[in-house]
Amino acid sequence: MSREQRAMIDAMVRQPRPAGPVPVEELRAGFREMMAETRVPDGIRTTATTLGPRPALLVEPAGTPRPGTLLYFHGGAFVFGSPETALSLTGNLVARTGIKALSLDYRLAPEHPFPAAVEDTLSAYRALLDSGEDPSAIVFAGDSAGGGLTVTTCLAARDAGLPLPAAIVAFSAGLDAGRTGESMVTKEGVDPFFTRESLRHTEVMYLAGQDPNQPLLSPAALADLTGFPPMLLQVGTNEVLLDDSTRLAARATAAGVDVILDVTADVPHVFQSFAGVLDEADEALDRAAFFLGQHLRIPGAADSRAR
After folding, report:
1. Phi-psi label, residue 204: left if phi above 0, alpha if psi -120 to 50, beta otherwise
2. How far lies 72's CA from each of 93, 100, 175, in Å?
3. Could you tell me if 172 and 235 are in contact, meaning their C-beta atoms sit under 8 angstroms apart?
4. Paired residues of 232 in beta bridges
5. Could you report the per-residue pLDDT of 152-168, keeping only the tens digit for each?
6. How far is CA 198 from CA 37, 204, 272, in A?
7. Count of alpha carbons within 13 Å of 110, Cβ hemisphere only?
8. Could you report the per-residue pLDDT of 202-228, keeping only the tens digit for each?
9. E strands within the chain?
């Protein structure tokens, strides 16, 4: 671990930002530009595809993939981002696990506010199940807003009577549209990316007047997680969203769910995207890959080993 690396990343992302609300297209272009600077690992291949009614990006290792599917939900406050902007994360998970990933291009606000994103992620999961994938061979992963979708998609799947995936990995998940966590105040100024006001700007687009006090919008505060699969929640201490993860972990524990709360000191939101530049990012991705390998269950594998 390197203080110099963490300081460099903090200085790089702590850039002056325009005063007042930023137009949607400018937000989207700025995010694409920032994420284009992240490192995508060698030894992966990508193919445009579809999953349910939505486009998706298939990310595969160069060799033959191991059995299983990583269903990935990208970040971007439900307003910006795409499978391409998340490629440093999906690529690194694929490279480390050998499992293929399907990264979903779900609909974005303000053109498509809540619950469009959840509808799309649930449709994508249903499409995997309908194609014959066993739920024990599917894992959900996501970052930021997409980290929140790993949880809310499970809630929606459970409500729809669908079996749940084998595991969840969430990086710096957004899990409380009401912004009621103490870290919204205590990490103000420490977080190099977000303030309560900047989050409110995109939140208004996504909510479109809906009450945030419902489980599909604020699972850290309101969701019943009974029956959920094992969860790995990774988050940095320099985040206003820190308490979204800590509170969800507490709810999971209370519901009898296996959960690992993995907190890294002095790193920003979705620090894993700085793999190859920040030691803590690579180490966190290694832990995530190990967790996924532990919980992915391939039907018939145990029987074949027994023989």
Report:
1. alpha
2. 10, 10, 16
3. yes
4. 169, 260
5. 999 999 999 999 999 99
6. 22, 10, 22
7. 11
8. 999 999 999 999 999 999 999 999 999
9. 44-51, 54-61, 66-73, 99-104, 138-143, 167-171, 231-236, 259-264
Active site residues: 144, 239, 269
CB 263 within 8 A of CB 236: yes
Take residue 45 and report the two structure tokens written for it: 């291949």
CATH class entry, domain 3-291: alpha beta
- The pTM of the full predicted model, rounded to 2 decimals, is 0.94
Q: Tell me how far apart the alpha carbons of residues 269 and 301 are, in angstroms, rounded to a whole number.
A: 37
Structural domain boundaries in the chain: 3-291
Calpha distance 75→193 (Å, rounded): 14
Place of tokens 């009621």: 180
Cα distance between residue 45 and residue 60, in whole Å: 5
